[in-house]
Sequence to fold (110 residues):
Amino acid sequence: MQWINLSDLAQLNAIKNDENYNLIFKHSTRCSISLMVKKRFELDWDALPEGINLYFLDLISNRDISAAVAEVFQVHHESPQLLLIKNGECVLDASHGDISAEEVVEMVKG
Fold:
């Protein structure tokens, strides 16, 4: 698996209009907890089903996109934060220690 850098509002519109699952990981490059959660997630992400786009949002460099994510998907801003999007809706919103690839797998398999 590989991260797709989320650095353009056009990408956010594409995610909103996609019928498939898209995952957004909001990360603060200044936070050691965020780094630890990201590394733990990456250790387990091979369990994710194929076809999920994995977007990485650097909150420090892209504050405007972070604000747009909160507004578009009607979620409270957190960092780190994992959002699973399907058909333009946020179907999973997890932060800090609640972020896990296993929970994403459970949601996708339904």
